[in-house]
């Protein structure tokens, strides 16, 4: 009977296309679908009601028993939780285990959220599991869950049906009431670095935010955390004590004598994420029943060393849109992509950008003038590297309107300047895709850029304050004034003051460009028409922006 039902489900799913599935998922991405009903007593939004409704969905999908057998590693955090999950998955995969990985958001295709052994799920398997879940939930009298909650249920169905050895789940938002928290008995829980994000939902202090993140802790389940500020650590420890569980601050990678290990993900901050991933993998392996596959790993881990498969996994980990560099075929245009979108992650992004361009083959524009600090003086000859190429570093930026742009832009300006690689200009573009659609519809030719114009004004204000502060960026800007024109911005100038005939809006050190494709075309044209220029574009502020750029560059 079960085989016959599966065959019928397979037949029904084959008659409906991938585009049909995407259209169905799009109906779940509305503000109403994701907003819980108000509490009748207080009038406030009742997020707990949405969370509790998931358990009814689990019954409908007949997942109760399967979930109790699913081996799960659960990771929350403000910054680095996705990278931690990526490191964790790769280490266990390299160790010979069949892995499932659930992350968000996706950059190019919704199937990225559901990975098996590092690969996004195949379309035919996606369609089978999608329609299996969709049809049962639609047939139930209860309202369909919102998009992320549905994706979580779908992922759990996939992982249980495909019989993975381990499922690594990245929390979507918070922890306590996140859809992934329906898993009652994970093998290990991890907390990546905490900071200020989603404060309207999680709280206004680090203590409150940490309390929500610690909501994934379970009685009897060991918990691990990256080093945290005292305020956050206090909340995490308090929750662990309430549950009677251990909370371990993970040791640095250097404790495993991995001082010179080159991680697959760039940036010094990734060593923190990798250390958390190592602790989670170690816990998972050590709790497995001894077998031919696990005994060797357990023996090495018990000695305080890391198995070769763990080291290889750390070296090979890749995570699209995070600390990723793409060199355009011209050879003189490079994009540095990082989906940072919180103040803390923007700091890490800026440091990674500076470190990366410093280590690349072409020498940097200015050499260090002391043992530790890089700076740029105002002499004309320092603008040129040893290959006779003038380097221009620019920011390509957008962020969601709910975020404070000053707290995102300020760290980039300050740290790039302090590290000796100040930005020469900034470019702001409207979104090419939307968080209200699973796919990415093409941007309208008449797209509103009022938000990007506000971002531009904030940038120019920060820039002017830097000028008056006597920093490295000031001397660079003064040098620019001595030149006839800034090579990049001059390409957009027209006789119309402040505007170009193509709808681009110019500032002294910035421009709003009407669309992301237009921005990419502009950078490529600049590179082609100015052979003396090497353009380094830092793309950050939004994972949607990073995903859209990846899509454009791949096509």
UniProtKB/TrEMBL annotation:
PROSITE patterns: FOLYLPOLYGLU_SYNT_1, FOLYLPOLYGLU_SYNT_2. Residues 363-382, 484-505 are annotated as: Disordered. It catalyses: (6S)-5,6,7,8-tetrahydrofolyl-(gamma-L-Glu)(n) + L-glutamate + ATP = (6S)-5,6,7,8-tetrahydrofolyl-(gamma-L-Glu)(n+1) + ADP + phosphate + H(+). Residues 369-378, 487-504 have a biased composition (Polar residues). It comes from the Eukaryota. One of its GO terms (biological process) is one-carbon metabolic process. Pathway: Cofactor biosynthesis; tetrahydrofolylpolyglutamate biosynthesis. The keyword Membrane applies. GO terms for cellular component: cytosol; mitochondrial inner membrane; mitochondrial matrix. It is found in: Cytoplasm; Mitochondrion inner membrane; Mitochondrion matrix. ATP binds at residues 322, 338. Mg(2+) binds at residues 104, 170, 198. One of its GO terms (molecular function) is tetrahydrofolylpolyglutamate synthase activity. Keywords: ATP-binding, Cytoplasm, Ligase, Magnesium, Membrane, Metal-binding, Mitochondrion, Mitochondrion inner membrane, Nucleotide-binding, One-carbon metabolism. Its cofactor is a monovalent cation. InterPro entries: Folylpolyglutamate_synth, Folylpolyglutamate_synth_CS, Folylpolyglutamate_synth_euk, Mur-like_cat_sf, Mur_ligase_C_dom_sf. Gene3D superfamilies: Mur ligase, C-terminal domain, Mur-like, catalytic domain. A monovalent cation. Its main location: cytoplasm. It is an enzyme of class 6 (ligase). Catalyzes conversion of folates to polyglutamate derivatives allowing concentration of folate compounds in the cell and the intracellular retention of these cofactors, which are important substrates for most of the folate-dependent enzymes that are involved in one-carbon transfer reactions involved in purine, pyrimidine and amino acid synthesis. PANTHER family: FOLYLPOLYGLUTAMATE SYNTHASE, MITOCHONDRIAL (PTHR11136:SF5), FOLYLPOLYGLUTAMATE SYNTHASE-RELATED (PTHR11136). Belongs to the folylpolyglutamate synthase family. This is Folylpolyglutamate synthase.
């Amino acid at each position: 009977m079960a085989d016959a039902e599966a065959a019928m489900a397979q037949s029904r799913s084959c008659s409906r296309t991938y585009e049909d599935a995407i259209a169905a998922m799009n109906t779940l991405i509305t503000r109403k679908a994701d907003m819980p009903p108000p509490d009748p007593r207080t009038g406030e939004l009742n997020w707990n009601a949405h969370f509790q409704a998931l358990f009814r969905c689990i019954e409908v999908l007949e997942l109760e028993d399967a979930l109790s057998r699913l081996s799960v590693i659960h990771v929350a955090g403000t910054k680095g939780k996705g990278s931690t999950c990526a490191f964790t998955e790769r280490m266990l995969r390299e160790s010979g285990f069949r892995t499932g990985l659930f992350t968000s958001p996706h950059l190019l295709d919704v199937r990225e959220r559901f990975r098996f052994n590092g690969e996004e799920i195949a379309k035919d398997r996606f369609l089978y599991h999608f329609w299996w879940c969709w049809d049962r939930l639609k047939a139930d009298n209860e309202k369909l869950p919102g998009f992320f909650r549905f994706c979580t249920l779908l992922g759990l169905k996939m992982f249980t049906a495909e019989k993975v050895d381990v499922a690594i789940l990245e929390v979507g938002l918070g922890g306590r009431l996140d859809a992934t928290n329906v898993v009652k008995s994970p093998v290990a829980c991890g907390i990546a670095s905490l900071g200020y994000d989603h404060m309207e939902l999680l709280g206004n202090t680090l203590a409150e935010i940490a309390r929500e993140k610690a909501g994934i802790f379970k009685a009897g389940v060991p918990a691990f955390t990256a080093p945290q500020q005292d305020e956050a650590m206090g909340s995490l420890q308090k929750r662990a004590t309430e549950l009677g569980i251990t909370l371990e601050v993970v040791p640095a990678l250097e404790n495993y004598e991995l001082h010179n290990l080159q991680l697959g993900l760039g940036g010094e901050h990734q060593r923190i994420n990798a250390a958390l991933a190592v602790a989670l993998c170690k816990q998972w392996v050590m709790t497995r029943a001894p077998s031919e596959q696990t005994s060797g790993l357990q023996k090495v881990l018990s000695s305080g060393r890391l198995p070769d498969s763990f080291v290889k996994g750390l070296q090979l980990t890749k995570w699209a849109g995070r600390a990723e560099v793409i060199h355009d075929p011209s050879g003189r245009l490079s994009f540095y992509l990082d989906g940072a979108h919180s103040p803390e992650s923007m700091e890490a992004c800026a440091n990674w950008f500076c470190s990366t361009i410093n280590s690349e083959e072409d020498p940097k524009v200015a050499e260090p003038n002391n043992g530790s600090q890089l700076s740029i003086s105002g002499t004309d000859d320092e603008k040129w590297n040893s290959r006779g190429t003038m380097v221009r570093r620019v920011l390509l930026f957008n962020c969601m309107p709910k975020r404070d742009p000053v707290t995102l832009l300020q760290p980039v300006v300050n740290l790039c300047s302090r590290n000796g690689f100040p930005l020469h200009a900034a470019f702001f573009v409207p979104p090419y895709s939307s968080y209200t659609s699973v796919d990415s519809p093409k941007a309208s030719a008449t797209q509103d850029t009022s938000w990007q114009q506000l971002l531009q004004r904030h940038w120019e204000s920060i820039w002017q304050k830097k000028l008056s502060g006597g920093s490295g960026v000031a001397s660079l800007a003064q040098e620019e004034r001595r030149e006839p024109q800034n090579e990049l911005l001059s390409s957009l100038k027209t006789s119309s003051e402040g505007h170009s005939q193509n709808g681009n809006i110019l500032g002294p050190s910035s421009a709003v460009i009407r669309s992301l494709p237009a921005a990419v075309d502009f950078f490529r044209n600049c590179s082609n028409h100015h052979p003396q220029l090497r353009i380094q574009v830092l793309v950050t502020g939004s994972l949607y922006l990073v995903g859209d750029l990846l899509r454009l560059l791949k096509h």
